[in-house]
Amino acid sequence: MIDWQNIDTVLLDMDGTLLDLHYDNHLWNHIVPQEYAKVNQLNLSQAKIALEQKYNQVEDSLSWYCYDFWTHTLGLDIYQIQHLNSDKIAWRKDALWFLQQLGSMNKRRVLLTNAHPEGVRVKNEKTQLCGYLDDVISTHSFGQPKEEQSLWQQVQQALGFDPARTLFIDDNELILQAAQTFGIAHLIAINTPDSSLVAKSFQHFASIDEFQALINPANNNDK
C-alpha cells in the first residue's frame, strides 16, 4: 500500500489515529452532558440537545478543539473534567508498534493534531506518546486547524517537509481532503478511530484498521 522508499516524513493525527477516540467520545458525549445538566438543572436529554447545538456551531473550527473556549462557553472546568476521566486514554491497537517501526526505518515522525495543548500533555502523561515522535505540533500554536490551507502552509514552512515525500494519516475525511488540496502526496484514513464503534467508510481515501497493513517486514531494512 505504501512504498516507503518514497516517504521521508510521516504526519500523524493523535485522537482516533494513534490514540483511541473512545476516550474523547465518552468525555464529550457522556461526561460533559452530565456535568452540564447538573450545573444548569437540566435532565440529561435536555443537556445533550443544548450541547449538540453548541457543538454544531463551531464544528471544524479551532474553537471545536479548544478547552478555553468550552470552559467559557459551557461554564464548566474542562481541564478538571479531562483529568478526572483520563483513565480511558489508550493507544489504538498497534499504533505504538507502528511508531517504533517508523523509527527503525529512519522516518521523521510528526504529531500534527488539532487537540488543545493541555489535551496533548495529559495524553502524553498517560501514554508517553511524545517519546516516540520527532516533532509534536498542536495547531493551536498556529491559530488554525488542519481543515484550513493556511495551517498547512505554516506547518510546511516550520518543518520544511517535502509534500511529495510525505505520508499523512488521519481519521477525518475533511482534513484528509485539506491535506490533499495542499499537495500531500500520500494519504491514509483510519476507519476504526473509536474501538467501541463499527468501522467508518471513506469515499476518497484508502483506509486501514491496523497499521501493520502499511508495513511489510522487508521494508524495515529501508534505513
Automatic annotation (TrEMBL):
Molecular functions per Gene Ontology: phosphoglycolate phosphatase activity
Signal sequence segment: none
Pfam families: Hydrolase
Domain of life according to the entry: Bacteria
CDD domains, sorted: HAD_like (cd01427)
SUPFAM superfamilies per UniProt: HAD-like
GO cellular component: cytosol
GO biological process: DNA repair
Protein name: GMP/IMP nucleotidase
Phylogenetic placement of the source organism: Bacteria, Pseudomonadati, Pseudomonadota, Gammaproteobacteria, Alteromonadales
